[in-house]
Amino acid sequence: MSLTQSESQQSTEAIGTLKMPRTAMPERLVLIRHGESEANLLHRAIRKGVIDQYPEGFSEIPDREIRLSPLGRKQAESTGEWLASQYPKGFDVIFVSDHVRARETAGIILKTAGWEDVQVRIDPLLGERNWGRYTEVHRDIQQRIREELKRDPLHTSMPDGESLLHTRQRTRTLLERVAREYGEKRVLIFSHGEYIEAIWAEIEHMRSERQREFFQSSAGDIKNCQVVEFSCSRPGSPESDGKLRWVRSSCPQQKIEREWKALQRETYTPEELLAGVDHYPHLKLPSLDTA
Question: 109 with 79: CB under 8 angstroms?
Answer without folding.
Answer: yes
